[in-house]
Design goal:
Largest sheet: 6 strands, parallel
Number of helices: 8
Order of helices and strands: EHEHEHEHEHEHHEEH
Shape: globular
Number of domains: 1
Pfam families: CbiA (PF01656)
CATH topology: Rossmann fold
Oligomer: single chain
Structural class: alpha/beta
CATH architecture: 3-Layer(aba) Sandwich
InterPro entries: CobQ/CobB/MinD/ParA_Nub-bd_dom, DNA_Partitioning_ATPase, P-loop_NTPase
Protein name: Chromosome partitioning protein ParA
Distance between the termini: 14 Å
Bound molecules: adenosine-5'-triphosphate, magnesium ion
Number of strands: 8
Organism: Deinococcus roseus
Strand content: 15-25%
Radius of gyration: 19 Å
Helix content: 40-55%
């Protein structure tokens, strides 16, 4: 069982989006996946998956509080579930001790950051104590990278130059991401459309004003962030298999 935590001190940097997407992509690859939500807020992953109970997620999602209680009764509780992956979504927290403990329990800790100045500053606040505690099993992921500037690539280059582990795949800013959360579906199935009316009737147009074909309201740009997350999972699986092979 591999344990992937998604963490960081700063809020709003894409942790939940990352945890939900990684968990779903692993499940789509026929792995047995449990997504644990240690956040309680409205925007957390437990709520995301429960907004649309009909969607075939193909994975389990549970709240950390409940899992923790079971683990107190039986420390092997998770091992006994026959899981391939446990993915944990966390809340932004300043509690360094908690962060270091979580990292030590993780097979890999993913640290998402947006490429803007404040988020990168927040990332440094996360990295400094981890490095001080000699934690190295983390990997930074640049999320929500806008297409109109090179901020994402610049942030990535800076991390590479500082010899910090960073995913090669950068998650592009994609309108469907926030829709996916409110619609309770993975990014790939989010719908982004507006309805326009004129004398001849009603039309559904996508976020860029193109007419959407009948019945398919799927966001044509939803594929951007989804492809990027698929590449992240490829990197992740490869790295975890290598680590396993080298003991
Ligand atoms: N690739 C992306 N494209 C567009 N918007 C994005 C992208 N990634 C994240 N966002 C948006 O950024 C916001 C924060 O994302 P998310 O909720 O995943 O972050 P978080 O770190 O879990 O936040 P919190 O600290 O509140 O738990 C959301 O509105 C989300 O839709
Ligand atoms: Mg969150």
């Amino acid at each position: 069982m591999k344990f992937i935590s998604v963490a960081g001190i700063k809020g709003g940097v894409g942790k939940t989006t990352t945890a939900v997407s990684i968990a779903k992509i692993l499940a789509d690859l026929n792995h047995s996946v449990l997504l644990i939500d240690s956040d309680v807020g409205l925007s957390a992953s437990y709520k995301w998956l429960h907004r649309n109970p009909d969607y075939p997620w193909g994975l389990q999602v549970r709240k950390w509080e409940e899992v923790r209680r079971q683990l107190e009764q039986n420390p092997k509780h998770l091992q006994e579930q026959g899981l391939d992956y446990v993915v944990m979504d966390t809340r932004g927290s300043e509690d360094i001790e908690e962060l270091v403990t979580l990292a030590r329990q993780s097979t890999l800790m993913v640290l998402p950051t947006k490429p803007d100045g404040l988020s990168v500053e927040g990332l440094k606040d996360t990295l400094t104590p981890l490095l001080q505690h000699k934690v190295r099993n983390f990997k930074v992921l640049i999320t929500d990278s806008p297409a109109h500037n090179s901020d994402g690539k610049d942030a990535q280059d800076e991390l590479v130059a500082a010899k910090l582990p960073v995913f090669a795949s950068i998650i592009r800013r994609t309108e469907a991401v926030s829709k996916a959360a409110t619609q309770g579906v993975p990014i790939k199935d989010a719908r982004v459309y507006k309805t326009l009316k004129d004398d001849n009737g009603e039309y559904k147009v996508d976020s860029e004003g193109y007419l959407i074909q009948k019945s398919s309201g799927r966001a044509h740009n939803a594929v951007n962030a989804w492809l990027d997350y698929q590449r992240v999972v490829q990197e992740l699986v490869q790295q975890l298999n290598q680590t396993a092979a080298h003991g």
